[in-house]
Amino acid sequence: MFQLHLNFLGKQIKRFKAARLPRTETSSSLIWKHGITVHLVRRPRARRYLLRLQPDGSARLVIPRRGSQAEALRFLERSETWLQKQRLRWQSRSQSRLPWTDGTRFLFRGEEVVLRVESAAEGVRLHFAGEIIPLPGALPDYQVTVLAHLRRLAERELPERTWELARQHGTTNKRVTVRAQKSRWGSCSARGTISLNWRLIHAPAPVVDYLIIHELMHRREMNHSDRYWKLVAEACPNYTAAEKWLKRFRLETLA
User: Fold this and answer.
1) In percent, how much of the chain has pLDDT > 70?
2) Which pLDDT score is estimated for 19?
3) What is the mean pLDDT of residues 56-78?
4) Cβ distance 200 to 187 under 8 Å?
5) Looking at the structure, do residues 112 and 195 belong to the same domain, yes or no?
6) Same domain, yes or no, for 151 and 190?
7) Is 163 exposed, middle or buried (0-12, 13-18, 19+ CB in 10 A)?
8) 117 plus 152 within the same structural domain
9) Using CA of residue 237, residue 239, residue 244, residue 249, what is the dihedral sign?
10) Which among 114, 155, 120, 152 is positioned nearest to 135, based on CA atoms?
């Protein structure tokens, strides 16, 4: 009887601890060595500490569910040499490219668009393809600002479209995330999480739909077998044209 009571008590303690764990990402930022901004992101689903350099030159440090900020900072210290090398490469690329100013052209929803910078009473406004970005003042380079806006659009639109296509094709998935993968347009986990690259905002709508369908079909076949590609062809008959676009505009060629 006493043993049963202990087992019950142990289960209650585990439930209490689980309830205290955050279910969503939380984040904070700090200015670290060499002037690098580090975004500390606590991810309940992460299993280890993960450090990445972001496209804007800042760093993103993921803290796993049972991790601590103190240990994250120690991990950051141990990764200092690696992060410095990544930062130097980023600075070299940034210096070699032209700044984004009035007249800069870039890819948006499959079309080349032109960035326009206009003066306004409250500062400046950036215009492209019907999008407007107000700013309090002028900048020598608007790339970071524009890309941040594009990412916000992707984070709003891609999950919505994924759920819509999932309903149309009768697939089930538990979660949709929008990330900044370096080598993948998208992925599907065994647990049912669809992850999409925010840079899909550069692609035309049919290509976006294909990429989403590509991942959704993995909910039926977690491989690239003939059976899998048959499912893709049934759901997206013109998928070969989308594949050609994705091969032509590789991730490393996009901003």
Assistant:
1) 86
2) 40
3) 90
4) no
5) no
6) yes
7) middle
8) no
9) positive
10) 120
Distance between CA atoms of 141 and 95, rounded to whole angstroms? 12
Q: Are residues 212 and 226 in the same domain?
A: yes
For residues 85 and 6, membership in a common domain is answered with yes
Q: Is 249 exposed, middle or buried (0-12, 13-18, 19+ CB in 10 A)?
A: middle
> What are the C-alpha distances in Å from 82 to residues 57, 117, 149, 204?
14, 37, 29, 36
Residue with tokens 């764990």: 21
Pair 155, 244 in one domain: yes
> How many structural domains compose the chain?
3
Beta bridge partners of 131: 128
- pLDDT at position 99 over 70: yes
| β-bridge pairing 105-108 and 111-114 | antiparallel
Q: Which domain holds residue 26?
A: 2-96
176 touches 196 (CB < 8 A): yes
Residues 6+ apart with CB under 8 A from 41: 25, 26, 27, 60, 61, 62, 63
Cβ proximity of 197 and 171 under 8 Å: no
Residues 119 and 75 in one domain: no
pLDDT band of residue 10 (cuts 50, 70, 90) is low
